[in-house]
Amino acid sequence: LRAALRRAAQAGDAREVSAVANVARFVLERVSADGGTAANRPTLVAAEALASEALAHWGDAGVLGDALWSLKAQEHLLLKGHRMEILRLLGRLTEAEAASREDIAHARESRDEKDLAMMLSFRATALMNRGKYAKAEPLVKEAMELYERAAERDKAYRHNYLALKDNYATVLQRQGREDEAEPLFREVLRVHRAQLGKAHLTTISAMNNLALCVKDRAILFLKDRLNSAAQPPPEMEAFSEMIIEARRIFMEATRLLEANHPLDGHTASIAATLAGNLASCAADGDESARCLRKALAISREHFGPGHNATRGYQGKLAQLLLSGGDKAGARAVRKGKDAEAAAGGSAAARECAWCHKKDADSAKFKVCSRCRISAYCSAKCQRQHWKAAHKHECVEWGSGDGVGKLTGALTGARSA
């Protein structure tokens, strides 16, 4: 493609440059969708070089003339967007942000609202990736409002509007404004479910975002009660209800993903994120460890042991094991020598939820068919646990049943 671009540019053939650059755009889209894995990094480097060369030839007024800009401006902007995404995956965030700032200035001069909205979105994403949420907020809000006006005139822009609405909610959430963010996340999820279906990857990602916001709001709620001047007892019922709702949504999103989508570079990232997030609102330490082992195994397999996500799950699991007194397990995880995590938890010793018997052969254990979390060494233990406690706390995959019961069980146990 780079050779074809050079030949077309040398011949002064604007249409050929446009055609080749458009093919390059689709190649870049595919490459960026594969993510920032170690195996994909050489391809990303080559793709960035291709994008830079395509933009240089495409934007050469001496070769292309003004007519190309009027005919192919949208493709040109999309090509810039894919290059910025590749720069982000390569960790060149400062470069991506600088490029987007320049593009915004050009878009404002052209007075094209749709182009300006796209450029604002690209720059806001670059700022968000660097953790600059306060700076990103006005850009996301402006882009969202521009796409909202565009969607009123053309329904094709509804997807862009919803994507920006989701980003705006994320920006608010990351600044500790969960109460403002949650209604936006719920609205985005409602529309995606109605338009795309509950099993669509966009819907599943929206479920993850909502659950994460609910979980963060629960933690903020508890901190506010504990840190208040009068020091009143924490309102555990409201806190438990929020945590349980977040847990239910994470579980439902995981079930939909596993039932409808094979793991690849994109879905593996979603699967690992869901497992890691579920660990943060698990019922106990054992469940949290199982979720983190799953996230770590997926990340290791699809992104490699040196990926930032893999190291993050590794650190969280090691810290959890250390806090539970398992120093040897934590040390093995940190060194990457843990057979359990490398096998995705299949080699991990299962523990019966009733008698706490452990066995390395997980096939000997049966998992509750309703919640798919609690495991038992025998049917007898399962019946006894069900009668004693589990029937009050079991939350069915894919439904809200049991939420009120589990809240009651938690608060009842606290009172007892």
Mean pLDDT: 76
What percentage of amino acids are in beta strands? Answer: under 5%
DSSP strand tally: 4
Give the strand order, joined by hyphens, for the main sheet.
1-2
- N-to-C order of helices and strands: HHHHHHHHHHHHHHHHHEEEEHH
Sketch the major β-sheet.
2 strands, antiparallel
Whole-angstrom Rg: 25 Å
Q: By helix and strand content, what is the structural category? A: mainly alpha
The low-confidence runs, each spanning 5 or more residues with pLDDT under 50, are 61-71, 339-349, 395-416
How far is the N terminus from the C terminus? 70 Å
Proportion of helical residues: over 70%
Q: Shape from CA axes?
A: globular
The helix tally amounts to: 19
Helix-strand layout with pairing:
Layout (H helix, E strand, L loop, with lengths): L1 H10 L2 H20 L7 H18 L2 H4 L1 H24 L3 H18 L2 H17 L3 H21 L4 H17 L3 H19 L4 H27 L8 H25 L4 H15 L5 H19 L4 H16 L3 H9 L3 H4 L7 E2 L6 E2 L6 E2 L7 E2 L2 H15 L9 H13 L1
Antiparallel strand pairs: 1-2, 3-4
Helix pairs in contact: 1-2, 1-3, 2-3, 2-5, 3-5, 5-6, 5-7, 6-7, 7-8, 8-9, 9-10, 10-11, 11-12, 11-13, 12-13, 12-19, 13-14, 14-15, 15-16
